[in-house]
């Protein structure tokens, strides 16, 4: 059987070993950072609601307090998202 394509197979770019090495290093870096980041996010998601309580007790009438509360709430949501998979069995 012959190849019916007008282009030879050599024209299709093959990934170089340098590209593979760079990708492997990136994946290694992600695996190295993932566990500590999930750990910190998980525990931040647990601790941040305790910071919300005094702000709510003070009241949200002051714009600075309201902005602080909303910022902490957004950080808490992000911490919940990034820390949700912490300590799960594969």
From TrEMBL:
It comes from the Archaea. Residues 1-24 are annotated as: Disordered. Keywords: Membrane, Transmembrane, Transmembrane helix. Pfam families: DUF8028. The chain crosses the membrane at residues 37-57, 63-83. Residues 1-17 have a biased composition (Polar residues). This is Uncharacterized protein.
């Amino acid at each position: 059987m012959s190849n019916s394509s007008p282009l030879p197979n050599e024209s299709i770019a093959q990934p170089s070993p340098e590209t593979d090495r760079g990708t492997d290093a990136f994946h290694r870096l992600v695996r190295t950072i993932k566990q500590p980041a999930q750990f910190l996010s998980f525990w931040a998601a647990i601790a941040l609601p305790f910071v919300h309580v005094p702000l709510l007790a003070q009241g949200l009438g002051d714009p600075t307090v309201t902005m602080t509360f909303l910022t902490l709430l957004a950080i808490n949501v992000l911490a919940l998202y990034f820390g949700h998979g912490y300590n799960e069995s594969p």
